[in-house]
Design a protein that fits this description.
Length: 205
């Protein structure tokens, strides 16, 4: 189990580990139509007790660093994020996030992922995870996320997994796009690119 810590940005703060205070918020997020549309394998409408069980399992899993995200000034729930170790030997991690329906379209995705990716690539000796590669998966029909990964982060689309996600509500199957960015790519371009994106939203506030 990791020690408690937070990652602060101008508008949001990411807190680890998640606590019971957000179990109801998480249940609402997992029942949100826009969230389920982009993650069709989820059944939807979980109870706060079910979200508590997931939270407790993740806290005990050393391969997962999970966060809950809140607005700095209001304390309102924004969403969830996690970074998960895929292969320790190859220093490979995967990042995922979910933003509450009423908080979408405000640039929070950029502000959540910037410190998460930065922590992922930072050397272990400096308090990071020492990743060499961070990957992302999203449905090929999630065009907004695909555009964000390519334009805002500069991530590389490495391929498509055909029919990798099975719908929880029908017999349909969904193709999944795989994106990734390397530490040297983040340091050379991605960090500056995403930092500029975050700054642009601060100007609009």
């Amino acid at each position: 189990m990791r020690a408690s810590f937070s990652l602060a940005m101008p508008r949001v703060v990411l807190t680890h580990p998640p606590t019971a205070s957000d179990d109801s918020n998480m249940a609402q997020l997992f029942a949100c139509d826009s969230f389920l549309r982009n993650l069709p394998f989820l059944c939807g409408s979980p109870s706060p007790q079910e979200m508590a069980s997931i939270r407790e399992r993740e806290v005990l899993d050393d391969s997962i660093v999970a966060f809950r995200v809140h607005e700095v000034h209001s304390g309102h729930f924004v969403g969830t994020a996690k970074i998960r170790r895929i292969c320790d030997y190859n220093d490979t991690w995967e990042v995922g996030l979910g933003v509450a329906g009423d908080k979408q379209g405000r640039g929070y995705c950029s502000e959540i992922l910037f410190p998460l990716i930065e922590m992922g690539f930072k050397p272990v000796a400096e308090g990071g995870l020492g990743a060499n590669r961070i990957s992302f998966t999203t449905g090929v029909d999630n065009l907004g996320m695909c555009r964000w990964l390519e334009a805002s982060l500069g991530a590389r689309r490495e391929g498509v997994l055909k029919e990798a996600w099975k719908s929880a509500h029908s017999d349909s199957k969904h193709d999944v796009a795989i994106y990734a960015i390397l530490r040297r790519e983040w340091e050379a371009d991605g960090k500056q690119r995403l930092s500029a994106k975050v700054s642009s939203y601060r100007v609009l506030e």
